[in-house]
Protein: Protein PIH1D3-like
Amino acid sequence: MEFTSEHINSLTQMLKPPDEDSDSDCELDQRPTTYGKLGPGQIGPSARKEQTTPKVPESKGNPKDIWGEDEVPEGSEFDTTFDPRPQPEYDMVFKQAVSSEDMFLQMGNKTPSTASCEDMVIKIKLPGTKAADLTLDVKAKFLDLRTPKYKLGLHLPHPVDHKTGKAQWDGDKEILNVTLRMQREYDFMNF
Structure:
């Protein structure tokens, strides 16, 4: 069956809503009247509207601050775009606590994937650096390491418990090992 322009025009006429000048009874019932607009609030003298001033939300911080804490993205205070220090080499490894029941009996739901890991270990190579020169700051999603020679601003792939982290300095290899416990939502892979 071929569609011509006549078929399309007849289809549009069939689907088009009725014009304003049609005389159907349904439209007569829907026409508003003055009495239909009145409600219980319109009986008696009209009340004066009180002028209300919009409430300004209370600021929780310092009134001299330019930005609020919720307006600044996390980790932006560590933005070091114009810092000439190089970024050190680092490796990120995921660590899993495996017990004998996981190893031999395989009763748990743990898999060798990173979804079943509990800890994140970041190994940062800092040649020519001493432990006294290290400044480490860990937030929930950001790790900031600064030394006189290097700087590292690392956005973490998963939120971590920044209060229970552990950092160890290996002076012989000049490597800083930072172990952070991950805080992830529980799901079928992550329990």
Q: What stands out?
A: The chain has a mean pLDDT of 77.
